[in-house]
Amino acid sequence: MTEDYAVEREDEELAGRYVVHLAEGVEAEMTYRKLDATTIAIDHTFVPREYRGANIALKLVERGIADARAEGIKIVPRCSYVAAQFLRHPEWEDLRAS
């Protein structure tokens, strides 16, 4: 059975993160820094070992992509996982900051 993991966004003035609360005190997250008003750098993605393979990291990235598209934000994919997902999803290329 596949879990339906809810992705939440925590946005602050200079940075933020997308988070999935997995169990008491256990989280998966993707963090970003705001480079300017229209650009973020996604710099880290983490899923606890026991939850890997459930596409949680991809859900985090997809939520970030959807929000960026809706808000007119460009992304610098500094995290290796996010950079790899950009290569796998050429339809996201318009969101890559140049």
Give an account of the 3D structure.
With 98 residues, this protein is an alpha+beta fold. It has a single domain, classed as Gcn5-related N-acetyltransferase (GNAT) (Aminopeptidase, 3-Layer(aba) Sandwich), CATH 3.40.630. It contains two helices and five strands. The protein has helices at residues 56-71, 80-88; strands at residues 8-11, 15-23, 26-36, 39-46, 74-77. It has a five-stranded mixed β-sheet with strand order 1-2-3-4-5. 22% of the residues are buried.
Count of discrete domains: 1
The first-level CATH class name:
Alpha Beta
Characterize the overall form.
globular
Taking all Cα atoms into account, the compactness measure Rg is 13 Å
Provide the CATH superfamily.
Gcn5-related N-acetyltransferase (GNAT)
Instruction: Show unreliable segments.
Output: none
Labels describing this entry:
alpha+beta, Aminopeptidase, globular
Walk me through the topology.
Elements: E1 8-11, E2 15-23, E3 26-36, E4 39-46, H1 56-71, E5 74-77, H2 80-88
Parallel strand pairs: 4-5
Antiparallel strand pairs: 1-2, 2-3, 3-4
What is this structure, in a nutshell?
With 98 residues, the protein is α+β, with helices and mostly antiparallel strands.
